Amino acid sequence: MKKADINILVVDDDQSSRAALAEAVKRAGYKVTEASKVEDALNAVRIKPVHAAIIDCMLPRMNGIQLAAELRASRFGNAPLIMVSGIFKDKAFAQDAIKKTGALEYYAKPVPMLGMVELLDEKLAELVDAPKVPLHALLSKPYASARERSKALESIEEITGLDLPLVISILMDSESTGYLNVATKDGDVSGITFVKGGIIKGDTAESHTMVGGLLIKKGFLTQRDFEELPEKQRRGDVLKHLINESLISPHAAEVIKGEQVIYGLLGLLKNNPLQMNFVPERVRDKGTPVNAVQL
User: Fold this and answer.
1) What's CA 16's distance to the chain center, in Å?
2) Helix locations, the chain, DSSP H
3) Which of 112, 194, 219, 287 is most buried per CB count within 10 Å?
4) Residues 59/88, Cβ–Cβ less than 8 Å
5) This prediction's pTM
6) CA-to-CA distance for 161 and 267, rounded, in angstroms?
7) Per-residue model confidence as pLDDT tens digits over 176-232
8) Residue 284: CB partners within 8 Å, gap ≥ 6?
9) Angle in degrees, CA 248, 252, 258, rounded to 5
10) pLDDT per residue as tens digits for the range 96-122
């Protein structure tokens, strides 16, 4: 539900007081239904959904506490309720009113509008859908800290493969450490490991099958040398085995890892929907990261 669809009932027979309360609620982004009479308030609840109410204690024909009881018995139920009064300012009365009505708070007039709105925001937050943030906006919006930008990224769950470079840019710019997981509709899961904004590992379907080709392309291994490797070693950690056998240097392995990350990511850059989430976590891997310039 959008915040603008949340309907708050404001009941006060004093026109200026009611207008001030309604204006504060509107400025906070909510919809407002105003009522000056008990009958109008009860009819409003019968006609349309009311998600919260602000009620003055002193009303004609029926006081606010009695109206609150009527509302509790209607489909309004246990929705958030705030009581206000310009006459009854005694603490004992306020406590009794809260007890009888199940109100969140009792405010003596003049009502502290900021505090009232903050209380409503807190209690109605679960009704508001998380805003859909345009992905490009996360790059252009100024953030107080890198943590805020990474946090904002959590509001986006589904992207396309063509959006992935933007997501990676955000994580690099915020010097994030952790794991970016992406999954296709077919259930294929890939993982990208970040350390302080650099990518040290990319586990994709393509990255596991391209190591041999990259070694040959870069001149670190011949086609014949690769074919002579046992099948088990070709499917396992090829680079680790080649280093242990002194067939390539650790430097060559770092070069290939970087290429492996880049080419593995290229395989994800398609106009297909992806589910994603980023898990901030300490990473032990001390490999040489692929930085933004290389990428």
Assistant:
1) 39
2) 15-27, 38-47, 64-73, 91-101, 113-124, 135-140, 146-153, 164-173, 205-209, 211-217, 223-227, 231-235, 238-244, 250-266
3) 194
4) no
5) 0.48
6) 9
7) 888 888 888 887 888 889 998 888 888 876 665 677 777 787 777 777 877 776 665
8) none
9) 140
10) 999 999 999 999 999 999 999 999 999
